[in-house]
Design goal:
With 107 residues, the protein is mainly β. The protein is 6% helix and 36% strand. Strands 3-4-5-6-7 form a 5-stranded antiparallel sheet, with no helix packed on it. Strands 1-2 form a two-stranded antiparallel sheet. The two termini are 14 Å apart.
Length: 107
Amino acid sequence: MTAKLSTGATYAGPFFQITSETTIEELTPLWTGWGDRWRWRGWTYWGPSQSTLTHYSGRVLANLTGADGQMRCHFRLMRPSAGMAGGGQGRCQLPGGTIIDATFPPA
């Protein structure tokens, strides 16, 4: 996934659609670059635990890398059976802690 912000910053990296078959081990790349900070600033379900899978079931999580660090995102899909192509909306947290709303239209 690639995200381009109005500031010109670009972030890219993996995204994961969480299903009932998803395991914590499959999600390991989501916490790359966050160190001990994966629990800070209102992202209580951002970490390698069963509560993450339960909370985000049917949604998409992403960990994107930019020139200034990591941006993490969670999205609620408009049509989960269509995946990201079905469109959705969510929130992303920038490296400095700023949270932004994110939307993407159906393809």
